[in-house]
Amino acid sequence: MTLTQLQVFVAAAKAGSFTRAAEEIGFTQSAVSQMIQSLEKELGVSLFQRSRSGITPTSIGERMLSHARDILNITSCMTEEANVARGISSGTLRIASIPSVASRFLPGLLGSFRKRFPAVDILLLEGDSDEIGNWLHSSVVDIAFTVMPDKEMQTLPLLQDEMMVILPDTHPLKDSQTLRFSEIAERCFIMPKDGCIRKMLQENHITPTVTFEVREVYTILTMVQEYIGVTIMPELYMPPVIPKVVAIPLSPPITREVVLAVRNWQSISPLTAEFAVHSQQYVKGMDFTPTSK
Q: 139 and 66 in contact (C-beta within 8 Å)?
């Protein structure tokens, strides 16, 4: 078993086709097929189910895939540590993020990190908390910005994100310093399509009658602006420039903690550790101007 075989195995699983994997990693389709067959023969199991539409990992193939990613991560860590010792800061950093972080401050954070480490390749995946948990567990990503992480994950706190009531800027309650849910309970409610928000509201005994469920933040804000309904969402969801709406803190306050999550802080690469420290410092110095009144 060689590292090249494992790299080909992971690439083939990601591409869903030996031909596409070969194109992406610069091998011939025949070479990719032969390496997979050789790996299957050595392990004594079938790693993929073949069909006319492509390939998919078998049940044992999924488990072998997780191990292969772990092995490649370890070798990547070794290479990065050797590079650091030689004064070279390069490698690939794979990051996952919930949408609100990805849109609000991650672009600036990544830009400042790239200035320090221009030779680093950054891969960014955006998903919900459940998707991010799966990516961390299966070593698809190295580190993630998330909320309500799996208890098996190890985390580093970044910031508190407060839940806000969103109203049209001409609404009679627009000048309120805070709002209780009871003050808007009878109005049409637009639920952000985010399982974490729904769970947080339920845990705080807030059960709105959902009229609409919408994924895109700008769509929700525009609907509020047009008096179609009201909503409650985390402050980080709010863009720096918003439509004709106001964001008012909920009373009693509900906050969620945004964290950096990894599988194990003891086994992360030097590059991942550097990114975690950089993220904490960036957030501490961030000019986070609240959108609330």
A: yes
